[in-house]
Fold this protein.
Amino acid sequence: MTEFKNLDKAPSYAALKAAAPADLHKELNAERILRSNIPVGGGLTFNYACRPVTDASFSLLQKLADEQQVIDKYKMLLSGEVMNTGEKRLVMHQLTRGECAGSVTADGHDLGAFYREQQQRIAAFAEKVHNGTVTGSTGKRFRKVIQIGIGGSDLGPRALYLALKDGAAAAGTLKMEADFISNVDPDDANGVLNGVDYETTLFILVSKSGTTQETLTNQAFVLKKMADAAIPGLTPSRHMVAVTSATSPLAKSDDCLDAFYIDDYIGGRYSSTSAVGGVVLSLAFGPQVFADILAGAHEADLNALNPDITANAALTDALIGVYERMHGFGATAVLPYSQALIRFPAHLQQLDMESNGKSVNRFGEPVDYPTGPIIFGEPGTNGQHSFYQLLHQGTDTIPLQFIGFTANRTGNDLSIDGSTSQRKLNANLTAQMVAFALGKEDDNPNKRFAGNRYSSLIYGKQLTARALGALLAHFENKVMFQGFLWNLNSFDQEGVQLGKVLTKKVLSGDMSPELKAFDSLLNG
Amino acid sequence: MTEFKNLDKAPSYAALKAAAPADLHKELNAERILRSNIPVGGGLTFNYACRPVTDASFSLLQKLADEQQVIDKYKMLLSGEVMNTGEKRLVMHQLTRGECAGSVTADGHDLGAFYREQQQRIAAFAEKVHNGTVTGSTGKRFRKVIQIGIGGSDLGPRALYLALKDGAAAAGTLKMEADFISNVDPDDANGVLNGVDYETTLFILVSKSGTTQETLTNQAFVLKKMADAAIPGLTPSRHMVAVTSATSPLAKSDDCLDAFYIDDYIGGRYSSTSAVGGVVLSLAFGPQVFADILAGAHEADLNALNPDITANAALTDALIGVYERMHGFGATAVLPYSQALIRFPAHLQQLDMESNGKSVNRFGEPVDYPTGPIIFGEPGTNGQHSFYQLLHQGTDTIPLQFIGFTANRTGNDLSIDGSTSQRKLNANLTAQMVAFALGKEDDNPNKRFAGNRYSSLIYGKQLTARALGALLAHFENKVMFQGFLWNLNSFDQEGVQLGKVLTKKVLSGDMSPELKAFDSLLNG
């Protein structure tokens, strides 16, 4: 029977606590680099040569994975057990990209069939928009799509769209430009809507519950702006589709042309491969590109089933991350050497920090070990000219996750001073990994680099749609495994509730003296 | 005589270490909120009611400031002492916005006069571009400006541009759209240049040394793309101006129409108020808007001279930050409730982490206390649906810096369900501050909020250009004061050198086995 127990109850916990982080000055060499590779899926590989594990601690991590029965738990999740215990829900995002453990039936229907049906409906809708069968209400073709959503309805889809946009534009395969409105700050909607041609714009309203304050406010905002534009013959409802649950008020709203469905088993931050990402990505790039993302993610999901950690990239990444937290490292920086991944760190920030930023275990009992780290990051080489100073010479060690590709997305490049820009980009990445790991001695302590600043690398030939799907799933599965190891429920987010309750109090005027005091400052 | 000594040599250090962070459940009330306010400048106010200080520890912080003679050091800096000891340079960014301590002469000339002269040259140039006296080489007016620069030549100017853009567009005062190319990844330049009309575009090449690899590569990239466009009559050099030091190879380059100058006394991350920010901001918004930014920053610089910490917002912010680092808090999140400040956290990330991410003091001796924290952040309310879960209920406490305004930038808003979007935005901000500070008890530990998650608030009526300048200077001065307290040189960045050296080795083929191994992975 699968046992859910806290990390510090695992037999190998004490040995891992006692095992000092690897000294890369002794451990790192070319041979270690060339053997520390695990396939991710989608043509990507995970290299952990510069992470703080020795052969001995790596073996202990395999033991820990076995003791915490993480593969069994993953199988339970895949096969439809109620793994989101707090909210009493299944966790089905992997099923949006394919079956890993057979079909799952709930609420009287086959969930995989339901997700496939939605994907097919989205594909058919996108084709109709692209070929002009579905047009705007004044008869003009849709040229632009704007997604209205926040959190998981924004960060993942936006990161994936930006990852593929410039490459598609360069290849002439960008079917529609996309933009996103998320913040309740009216400057967000005003900025995005500035200069928009409503006749040729399709809005996607995304809210699982159909009750998200920001999203409904922004929907009303958009409808008002459309009405203010006073375009003869324009019918706003024919410029809006919804992505929501079948039971939400938006599902049958007169405000929308059509609706595509998700269900309660897809958490917001895990929803990029559901209709939440599917509609905007299929409209922007065509249904096949979205299908390729799903295929890459599915491949990574299948690889994550391997109980041998030397063949399971997501699990190894998760285990080393847990080990790093045991040894006092409080943060992880995500550093893609790919401008296309500019907002991918922001998506991972939500994915990881909202999933595992918890202090109680899945039974609601406090844990007494550190759980999820801070996640932040920017693309390289930009970050090198920004926060890398602290990463190299600051007083705290911050483990790093590099991402790099042999070829760039747009295919366009130029040789300058004997090397292409892509070659320079990757030379920087290689240099940074070794600089962080091995440092440099110097008589001047201000020019000294201690090394042992740990990192890993996910690399591949190119950031294709399939690679992007695998990259996304790698981190989803890493976060899931870390939740299993820490014995957390990675699928709820009770920490966001109190703010919602107090916001309502402020808006209704029913304020405590402290709320009233801050409110008075902000009201000038 | 001003004594530079390590933080732990200050007499009040031990008492501050021993003083436990405030329990806000006991300390926080409306009276504390209403009295914990300090003017920043530019119409902004800093509120520290929810930071972890009691009246007793606040008094100790005043003592610490006095013992570390931080105001004396600030005056030394302002009056032209060599405060960047490692690089043997003056530190003059405050002088770009006005004299705080009289004139400063170096290298045989008055530096303030030099910065003013550059500002006037920029203003005259911008006017000529705006009125059509200076046009593109085919006779068309310039409509767009694209800055090529990285790090400090990118993050600050970009953050300031984005902060003012949508408001200016809504008011009809946006004179030119701006964009930015920074990353050596060719996808960055390809993405920005996609669809650009070269005839009406002016590029600004920004590199103090004139030798930055990324920037020179991107300049060559842009010139090649312009040549490839084969536009009859187009002369690329008439579409490019430089911002550089007078001694750099770019200063008299035939590639450029004109050049505007900075000097070695303006560090990259402190250069937004020099020509580095001045050219793009004056072109985008007009010279008066840039002058307003400088005026706000100058006001904050003057306020930072006050030795009484109850009247010096930047110094109080700095002191509390140092206290938080003493007590084990490893990061600070910057959370602007203003979509316009979307990239301001990324600028502060560089400003802070590159300045104080150091392990040796200004004499090159190791320090044995934690220095600069991790800085990260995203605008609210977006962050609430992302990483706030960890901020509320994670195992580590992360102090927060909120920023908010009574009115939005674009002036356009709408009342929905009884409140405007701006009102909802600020209700969320008020709610979050109180939720973080006071938490909430609950029988279900998963729904429990411990509180004592510390935060401060910078607030004002609206994010005007003047307020934006003050906000920028507040953080610059905070970082400077923290450097004085920790006894660091906040103005060098030796931690970025090793990567540059190893990158050259990779590109030249002169690689260690470890470099070679990683290089082979990335080359497919």
